[in-house]
Amino acid sequence: MKVRFWGTRGSIAKPGSSTVRFGGNTSCVEARSASGTIIILDCGTGAHGLGQDLMESGVHPLRGHILITHTHWDHIQGIPFFDPLFVPGNEWDIYAPRGLGSSLHESLAGQMQYTYFPITLEELGAAIRYHDLVEGVFEIGDIKVRTLYMNHPALTLGYRLEADGVSVVYACDHEPHSRQYAQGTGTMSEQDRRHIEFMRGADLVIHDAQYTTTEYTDKFGWGHTPVTCAVDMCRSAGVRRLALTHHDPLRNDDHVDALCEDARTSLSKAERSMAVFAAAEGMVVELEASLDIKEEGDSESFSAVAPIEPALQDHQVLIGIADETLAEKIQQAAQADNLRILRAETSQDVLEIVRSTRLSLLILDGGQVGSDALETCRAIREMDIDHARDLPVVIVANTDSDAGTDVDVTDWLIQPFTAEYARTRVRAWVMRSMCRWGRAPFPENEAHRIEALKALQLLDTKKEERFERITRIAAAAFDVPIALVTLVDQDRQWFKSRFGLSATETPRDQAFCAHTILDMKIMIVRDTLLDPRFADNPLVIGKPRIRFYAGYPLTLPNGTSPGTLCLIDTRPRDLDEVKINLLRDLGKMVEREIAAILPS
After folding, report:
1. What is the CATH superfamily name and number for domain 312-432?
2. Which of 293-297, 391-395, 400-404, 434-438 has the largest mean confidence?
């Protein structure tokens, strides 16, 4: 994959003698796969030069794709000046985060109204298709695209591109969720961990690095990352190369040089295998596949471009905040997107409403410490009601807290914050809760598979030591709390052997193993929260809170799969090639035990 930078400046274009080396144009990056698929990441003023370059290439018609992180001007101002959009016969697909109100087409048309521009969006000559995105996975030609919400005062997506055996992450604009972590004085939050996992093992990360740590003290809530924090996150994610971007408009070339040098020196000698550099206009980075084992994901079960019914007036947000001023501020943020608002002033009122009402989001007042809010969250998680256990709970506080992990706090809204920032976070929480759970389709040979499964006569039988022994060994060998031998029936998944789990079965539409038997190969999900097939699965957001899954599809002599040998953990993790082979060996032991009961 080839990556070229056309715009690296943040906020406003800043051409001039002091920005010659790193450039003055705003965000725009071109990525091409080996087969020639063109993806443009953001369309700031740098898109003008890119458009001219594409026109001079002589290729006609041009087919390309534009991924917009968000619709702030410094990321879309180049669209009216991108020449390939004016040429009949060209085809372009434009993608951006789906808001709760206006569509992408309406947002882009706004900057080309008669008052601001002489040509309307509808008068462009190329065939243009618009796509509203949420978190998820989809494909553009031979490039797999993963999306994740960033932390910014507008609904913003980061993009991960995977093709040709390499991966590129574009995370611009983004602010760490924990302000203490951003300043280097505290630990990262769960949402920061999700961001790091999104970048895990990337060959190149292009990351927001607009501020120094000192500057960030006065920029809380502005939606940008201190340089040293960007370096720390990418180091934690095992990134190979980090390109610092979204350079502050007040920073000249010498300042960018100094910032980049400070970033490099912040790495220890052992960590300097990660290359750190400042993105510069005209810079080209060519990425070749490494020998590392890359995780295979699936983009068919749930797509980030899948249509979602808006009907957000049917989505209810409960505000459990006694302070009238704070409650009103949150209410205004939610009502801006026509969400239905419920109010509660006491913990008891909150619990009663949660029991009786299906909510999309609960926002609680954590005060200085948040102990009352944490206890309320704990009580909600202990309710024997699915919509309560799965409810996103956000706590408003003066600082985030690791204590929230024990009671599954979804996120923290840290004061002080603006109404615009609160609105963006409410949007992201509601949009995220709407769609990230894909049910596995039936295998093509489903009727034959079920017939073979029934013939085994293993369903609903008593425990057998020959299977129990294997799950005990698997749990110990992989240091996981749960190991199972599963049988995937017509509408359920039943456990022939279970180590570390009290349940005897789960519904098939919740079963990870129903996905494993589709492809008949080992399936590894290193972090369920980053996989759109599973992120909102009841077994992930409820007990047993699966964060890691590895499954080996058991195979019968007739080629069908009755189920799996699988491993489950409550924390994200990896399996190296040695461990993968060990899982395969244990799976074959289960197959041998099953074969022993088949008629000869």
Report:
1. Response regulator (3.40.50.2300)
2. 391-395
